[in-house]
Amino acid sequence: MTSSSRSRSLAWVTASTAAWNAAVLCGAGARKPEILRTYWSAAARTSSLVTVSVKGGRKVLMLRHMASSLPRPCGRISTVLDQLITYPATSRPDLLAGPVLDALTGGNGSAAGSLADDRIRVTEIDPALADTAEFCARYGVAAEESANCVVVTARRGDSETLAACVVLATTRADLNNLVRRHLGARKVSFLPIDRAVAATGMEYGGITPFGLPADWPLLVDAAVVGTDRVVVGSGVRHSKLVVPGQVLASLGKAEVMEGLGVPNRAG
Predict the structure, then answer these.
(1) Could you tell me the domains of the chain?
(2) CA dihedral defined by 112, 225, 141, 13, rounded to 10 degrees?
(3) Is the model's pLDDT at 95 over the cut of 60?
(4) Which of 76, 115, 127, 169 has the fewest CB atoms nearer than 10 Å to its CB?
């Protein structure tokens, strides 16, 4: 095989895997920007021509692919989500908590409405990696495409309201300001784990906005709704749902709120 043939062959192989490699690097870069900067610098120092050398050709092709996606934040690249093996959620009841399945199918008196469609997907995962940070690190999904659903208790005097907040994994719910004022409470705090599990019928680490009690306020950050596809819990630890962000705005008593998620504290 000539040098030119080898280069063309390498170019084809690299092009076929560039989307996956770029997405993985962007996922890693979203968590640790130095990873992306180091790769970018190394690739930029090689040749700008794909046919110069095997090593240079491979790196430059990947660099070009990544450059075409640069105007978007790396967390918006959904190629990694495409690599997950997903199923229509209602086709895999073994991967859903009972209340979640009821919400999607209309069982137990729930109104399924537009939820029973193929846009709501489920993927099986290692239950030991259900916590968002561990899930993102293992499966290469960017935190910007993952959301947390937290259950809170809002109190004023002897009155208590249970509610849920959904925010991107890059943020935390603004409980002490926005949520407290919105719910008219004196104090808002996370519901203890045992109560959250009992009240939702879901496993801790898998609590999701789907299938929550119908009378609960559901506060959803506008940034979550604006995400093309977002990963949320399935009610159990051994799977995740992948859904269009807009679907969350149609759930139960959902209210979309700007600024619900605030940046995580450093450290």
Answers:
(1) 3-73 (no CATH), 80-263 (3.90.960.10)
(2) 100
(3) yes
(4) 127
